[in-house]
Amino acid sequence: MTRSPQGKAGPTGGWAFRAGMRRGALGWRGSAKAIDRLKQATKEIKAATKTDPVRAGEGVVVLAERIWPAFEQIDTSTGALGTAVNRTLDELIPILIAAPADEPTRAKWVDRLIDAIQDDGVDYLAQLAERFGAIAAFPALMNHVADDTIGVVRSAWTAAGFAYTALAPVCLSCLLEAGRYDDLNELLALKRNRFWPDERFAAEALLRQGKPEEALAFAEAVLREAPNGHYGCQIAQFCERVLIGLGRTEEAYRRYALPTATGSTYLATWRALCKRYPDRPKHAVLADLIEAHGEKGKWFAAAKTAGCLDIALDCAGADDADPRTLIRAARDFAEKEPRFAANVALRAISQLLAGRGYDTVPDDAADAVQYLREAARRIDGEAWAVEAVERMMAESGPFGEPFLPALR
Fold first, then answer.
1. Taking a C-beta distance cutoff of 8 angstroms, is the pair 22, 116 a contact?
2. How buried is 123 (Cβ within 10 angstroms: 0-12 exposed, 13-18 middle, 19+ buried)?
3. Are the C-beta atoms of 256 and 236 separated by less than 8 Å?
4. CA-to-CA distance for 136 and 97, rounded, in angstroms?
5. What does the CA dihedral 104, 105, 107, 110 come to, rounded to 10 degrees?
6. Mind spelling out the 3-state secondary structure of the chain?
7. pLDDT of amino acid 263
8. In a 10 Å sphere around its CB, with 0-12 CB exposed, 13-18 middle and 19+ buried, how is residue 179 labelled?
9. Helices 362-378 & 382-395, crossing angle to 10 degrees?
10. Is residue 75 classed exposed, middle or buried when 0-12, 13-18 and 19+ CB atoms within 10 A define those classes?
11. How far apart, in whole angstroms, are the C-alpha atoms of residue 356 and residue 347?
12. How far apart are CA 220 and CA 269, in angstroms?
């Protein structure tokens, strides 16, 4: 296969990932395989970006067309597959937007993507729809898509009862990117209820018109009306971004960043917040997160990895600290930070004797004692360690009985 020239569409064939993304290729329990195939497709498309960015853009379109047909039969109740699709699109949409395709090529992509979005049974492609204006790229193409879809959206939003159309974010995104703010607001005015995934386009339009204070007030009004905090984190993130743009960084941090900070782990949450606020001391960010979110013991691993050993030791003493996590830390730090390791081991023993932790066994207590002794020897604290363990054993209740033999 020859590489396509710059600005021209590459061939649609030749993608290895297509074989595993056939219609009905995966069954009810195919979630793990589907996630693996998304990873393979992402790797292949990214590799193509280096030599032929237009072909890589084509690859994103090819993958998008196949996601719903290939995954339609899969059980999505765990949410893992939806998360994987979102992560995949997060990585690939910028490649699609940046591809230096000419207008006729991009027009074909747009038509194919609209078909895929309309056929999508569970909104896997919601991110594509929300960024459709940027994907269209050319002003004439943005306006064409907006004019083609605005009637459908208007009919859906003025129909009796509830009427849904997957084209709503497509239309709103194109109106936004084309700078048609009056048309955007007139269309949104037809809705009976405020819904942030739609209203955010109006908020963004205010920002682009140089009205950040109005954008902030608008978003905060939607946040107050959001039922049970629905989409609260997304609205808060928008408000945070506006406040940072206004130079009100402290307010952004306290009002929105801290309360809504999230991540796949406590450590990831801390790292993400530090990245957004690089001028704040990292240990202070960690302390703020613990204060804002509670569950002190669960922040132990984050504090330990962050090098905030004083905070980590405080977390280790909380009732919700996991004893096995503490034992692993005692093992890992026994040589380089023996005083810290010894105290963590003692806290692990205390947790075990109190009956805390999941699926703990007497061997856990034996390991804790071993790492305690190793650390204590390095600080000449063996007598102190023995005395501390004996005192805890004497004070232990019925939950600690299974662990007592391993501690002697």
1. no
2. middle
3. yes
4. 8
5. 180
6. CCCCCCCCCCCCCCCHHHHHHCCCCCCCCCHHHHHHHHHHHHHHHHHHHHHCHHHHHHHHHHHHHHHHHHHCCCCCCCCHHHHHHHHHHHHHHHHHHHCCCCHHHHHHHHHHHHHHHHHCCCCCCHHHHHCHHHHHCCHHHHHHHHHHHHHHHHHHHHCCCCCCCCCHHHHHHHHHHCCCHHHHHHHHCCCCCCCHHHHHHHHHHHHHCCCHHHHHHHHHHHHHHCHHHCCHHHHHHHHHHHHHHCCCHHHHHHHHHHHHCCCCCHHHHHHHHHHHCCCCCHHHHHHHHHHHHCCHHHHHHHHHHCCCHHHHHHHHCCCCCCHHHHHHHHHHHCCCCHHHHHHHHHHHHHHHHCCCCCCCCHHHHHHHHHHHHHHHHHCCCHHHHHHHHHHHHHHCCHHHHHHHHHHC
7. 85
8. middle
9. 150
10. exposed
11. 11
12. 24
Which tokens sit at 196? 């942030």
The two structure tokens encoding residue 327: 């034992």
Task: For residue 163, give the amino acid letter.
Answer: A
Interior/surface letters 194-231, b for 16+ CB within 10 angstroms, e for the rest: eebebbbbbbbbbbeeeeeeebbebbbebbeebeeeeb
What's the token pair of residue 184?
A: 């955007």
Dihedral sign from CA coordinates of 84, 85, 88, 90: negative
**Residue 155 corresponds to which amino acid?**
S
At residue 185, the pLDDT reads: 97
pTM: 0.83
Question: What's the token pair of residue 329?
Answer: 């830390």
- What letter represents residue 85's amino acid? V
- Residue 45 to residue 50: CA distance in whole angstroms: 9
Going from the first residue of the chain to its last (408 residues), give the mean pLDDT of each consecutive group of 10, the final group possibly shorter.
Answer: 37 81 93 97 97 98 97 94 96 98 98 97 96 98 98 92 89 98 97 90 98 97 76 92 96 95 90 93 94 93 91 93 93 93 91 84 86 90 85 80 70
Residue 22 token pair: 């056939």
- List Cβ neighbours of 151 (8 Å cut-off, separation of 6 or more): none
Task: Name the nearest CA neighbour of 47 among 105, 106, 91.
Answer: 91
> Residue 21: its pLDDT value, please?
96
Q: Provide the Cα torsion 17, 19, 20, 24; round to 10°.
A: 140
